[in-house]
């Protein structure tokens, strides 16, 4: 049986030993591309707005999660916002232990209804609190690549 064969009965399956020869390519989609391009070129954050539900999605979406309306209304949102939650991360995306733990936060940018997930820096854990004002720190314009990593981290708004 090859990877392309269709299995109609569970009894017709069998184990696959070794590595699966599967490759994938993640794309950010239409909304993600516009969001990242604007972040790269202008250093601005965009969201999409649902007029029916009054939600502003950041990162932007093409369809509203609540009513499934198509979202064509793009709005600028702030680069600062409110800390909604955070956690300390000890293992990286590659599954390896980090040399130094990192703070990861949910931030609701000004003008947005949803949160963006990103790193926090420049503050001791004991000073963190829900509702704290934080602002995005971006790479210099000449170093931006059109990726979420163009946001270096969020830091306290007063620092």
Tell me about this structure:
A hairpin with a 4-residue loop joins β1 and β2. With 159 residues, this protein is mostly beta strands. The strands form two sheets. A five-stranded antiparallel sheet has the order 6-5-4-7-8, with no helix packed on it. Strands 2-1-3 form a three-stranded antiparallel sheet, covered by helices on one side. It has one domain. The mean pLDDT is 92. The protein has one helix and eight strands.
Distance between the termini: 60 Å
What share of the residues lie within helices?
under 10%
Give the SSE string. HEEEEEEEE
Structural class: mainly beta
Would you tell me the overall average pLDDT? Answer: 92
Strand order of the largest sheet: 6-5-4-7-8
Q: Main β-sheet: number of strands, strand sense, barrel status? A: 5 strands, antiparallel
Number of strands: 8
The rough form would be described as globular
How many domains, as an integer?
1
| Alpha-carbon Rg, integer | 20 Å
Query: Counting H and I runs of at least 4 residues, what is the number of helices?
Result: 1
Low-confidence stretches: none
